[in-house]
Amino acid sequence: MEENKVLETGSEPVLDIENLVIHFELEDETVYAVNGVDMKLGKGKILGLVGETGAGKTTTALSALRLVPDPPGVIKSGKIMVAGHDMMKLTPAELQKVRGKEVSMIFQDPMTSLNPVYTVGQQIAESIYLHEENMTSKEAYKRAEEMLELVGIPAYRAGDYPHQFSGGMKQRVVIAIALACNPKLLFADEPTTALDVTIQAQVLDLMKDLIKKQGTSVVMITHDLGIVAETCDDVAVMYAGRIVEEGSLEAVFNQTMHPYTEGLFNSLPNINEDMEELKPIPGLMPDPTNLPKGCAFAPRCPYATERCSEKVPELKKVGEHHRVACSAYEDPSFHIARRSK
Question: In degrees rounded to 5, what are phi and psi of residue 41?
Fold first, then answer.
């Protein structure tokens, strides 16, 4: 059986996840959130983790920081290595040292990520003070002011509270906190969702610039394929807790192979076509408490056959930097009908 690897970008990946399975065990039912994810990410690379709401993207990211709420969340199996640390074996005290220093996360909503009763300078300085040895609180605050300048906010505003900032500036503060200790790995969960298009572009440009300067590896969690095209080196498409297609940006965008990825692209507007209506993917994501047997996408797939409901397809190599999990490719003549770009 071929190993399922999302990325192979060096012998010492910054992120290495193998066979990750996460359930949320509730009183009356079990939510099968992540169902065997494998992922590798090399230094300085940006991976776009794409999929609909409920696909398991954020839960996968939270597991890498050991932040899956337990209970009800249970990591049933899997290896999680971050910057050489076995996250599954670290004590709470050791995890505290690794979070923020080696791995950090930009959470989805900047409006709720900041504490309203502390100044933004205090919140940035706290992260620095906790992780930088032999640094006084005064030095940490000075560094916090420098981080604000780095993300385009004047240092004197370190004394202001979150409610005194716009949405875009709050997101910049969150980025400053996440990057304050130069982490080796950063998870960015829908980092521009609440921002207008102009501010989105500014924030993404800022992130790309800072990441390049610091050599940080990034997992960009998003449903926006435009953001992926602008920022990412590689792409992993997630559906119902599994990776269904992954590879380099060029391979996934230009040689799309999974029917779900095809559906994502075909549901986007195309300026080169005169269309009265968009073409959405029919149906809904499956109930994570009652996943269908075999391929979870089969009930929505226009190419599904009886064999699709018999077994879960493996993620198989179809090119040098491209893998897909679809049993239809057992037929060498099979191809999808990706709409022209």
Answer: -145, 125
If DSSP codes are grouped into helix, strand and coil, which group holds residue 265? Answer: helix
List all residues 6 or more positions away from 319 whose beta carbon is below 8 Å from its beta carbon: 247, 251, 255
pTM check: above 0.85:
yes
The pLDDT value given to residue 66: 94
What phi-psi label fits residue 79: left (phi over 0), alpha (psi between -120 and 50 degrees) or beta?
beta
Q: What is the C-alpha separation between 88 and 63, in angstroms, rounded? A: 9
Handedness of CA 147, 149, 153, 154 (dihedral sign): positive
Per-position DSSP letters for 185-235, written without gaps between them: EEEEESTTTTS-HHHHHHHHHHHHHHHHHHT-EEEEEES-HHHHHHH-SEE
Looking at residue 277, its pLDDT comes to 67
**Residue 249, SS3?**
helix
CA atoms within 13 A on the CB side of 101: 12
Starting at the edge strand that comes first in sequence, how are the strands of the sheet with 73-82 ordered? 30-41, 15-25, 73-82, 85-86
